[in-house]
Amino acid sequence: AQSVAQPEDQVNVAEGNPLTVKCTYSVSGNPYLFWYVQYPNRGLQFLLKYITGDNLVKGSYGFEAEFNKSQTSFHLKKPSALVSDSALYFCAVRFNTGGFKTIFGAGTRLFVKA
Amino acid sequence: NAGVMQNPRHLVRRRGQEARLRCSPMKGHSHVYWYRQLPEEGLKFMVYLQKENIIDESGMPKERFSAEFPKEGPSILRIQQVVRGDSAAYFCASSPGTGDYNEQFFGPGTRLTVL
User: Fold this and answer.
1) Which chain B residues are within 8 Å of A49, Cβ to Cβ?
2) Measured between alpha carbons, how far is B103 from A83 in angstroms, rounded to an integer?
3) N or C: which end of chain B has fewer CB within 10 A?
């Protein structure tokens, strides 16, 4: 079955430290990969995506993500976390099964402590 | 360019009533998606529509739920005879549909509370 996993419900990091939010997937074919962020009482906002090409993708607010085909992972990273980065992060995968479908991970809550 | 609009932002219904949630996609977007988010949970796909067509409704409950995206006007998610378990945030997203790799743009959501 097609699936997306975000193995950590919550990630805690101190401000100024690097952060990583993990995402792994299991889908057939070559998927398109996305990260979204959700702030309280708001809809999701697009951060970045991997379609093809360079495995390192740079996105909004200083975030980046690395596509690793052999490990079927697409971890979100930022070199130096800010308190304002505290939010809920969702990984999403879009794939073709006779029509394109998008599935979202369960989300990872990031807490950045000052 | 206005983003995805959803209304109402908050909706309170008593058990057995009907709930109608509206979504106006971004200008130029012809694809609409509906998702449900329960407290402290992720997004669950419900339905994917293009103008006048339901493309994928595999996430829609078989009863009481329906969706449409008419040629003119917003997309509507309709829940008949609501029950307490329907209480959730419902998000609409749109995409231009010019490529299957497009990201989705989300509205602010409608928070449905069933008393």
Assistant:
1) 101, 103
2) 26
3) N
- The pLDDT assigned to B98 comes to 58
Q: What is the DSSP letter of B86?
A: G
Predicted pLDDT at A43? 87
A42 vs B39: which has the higher pLDDT: A42
Contact A30, A98 (CB under 8 A): no
CA-based end-to-end distance of chain B: 37
3-class DSSP assignment, residue B73: coil
- Structure-token match 């995206």, residue found: B69
Question: What is the C-alpha separation between B109 and A91, in angstroms, rounded?
Answer: 19
Per-residue pLDDT reduced to its tens digit, B50-76 = 988 998 999 999 999 999 999 999 999
Task: Give the separation between CA A72 and CA A21, rounded to whole angstroms.
Answer: 14
Beta-carbon count within 10 A of B17 CB: 14
Strand partners, B93: B33, B106
In one-letter notation, the amino acid at residue B23 is: C
Q: What is the pLDDT of residue B19?
A: 98
Q: How far is A108 from chain B (nearest CA, A)?
A: 9
Q: Which of A45, A90, A99 is opposite residue B43, by nearest beta carbon?
A: A90
